[in-house]
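Hey, weird one. I pasted the DUF4269 domain-containing protein sequence into the form twice and got a warning about non-standard characters only the second time. First submission, copied straight from the form history:
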Amino acid sequence: MQHQAFNLNTLKNGTERQQAAYDAIVRIGVMQALRPYTPVLAGTIPLDVDIPGSDLDILCYAPDLDTFAAEAEQQYGHIPTFNAQTKPINGHATHLVRFQAFDFDFELFTQAIPVEQQNGYVHMLIEHRLLALFPQSREPIRNLKRGGLKTEPAFAHHFKLIGDPYIVLLQLARLDDADLLRRFTT
């Protein structure tokens, strides 16, 4: 089940950029078109740590990537910026679709893994929790992103995490909020 924080309706009443993202998503109809693939908007825009140029990342679950690829091309292949490829990411075949619509770059990230188990989703959950516990972190993380860091490395740098940011965030996700508070307030 999708986490309430990432429900599209929260964007409708969010920041100006979140409202624009909501409008773009509704106008292109991507969530409706991808409904069989349990699409979830992920990334910096729902977390409100986006910067100019941040894209709309949509995580999908497709047991058959070839079927997904064909349907995505049928839906969005007419868009001049459409680009699609299948490649391994973290040892899993991943189909990536990119296109631009309504002033946003869209990326459909699809694996044969349920969305709630994909690393991008788990990263987003822990990032959301950290921002809820430490809301003063939002602007410093945004500044790190403006300086060129990707989202996970920006969180790792801000919270002084040691090791691969992508792995360390997955490990942090196992902690409850009390443990997170203890870890980052002592």
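That's the output from the first submission. The warning seems to come from a hidden character in my clipboard, not from the data itself. The beta strands are 40-42, 56-61, 83-89, 92-101, 104-111.
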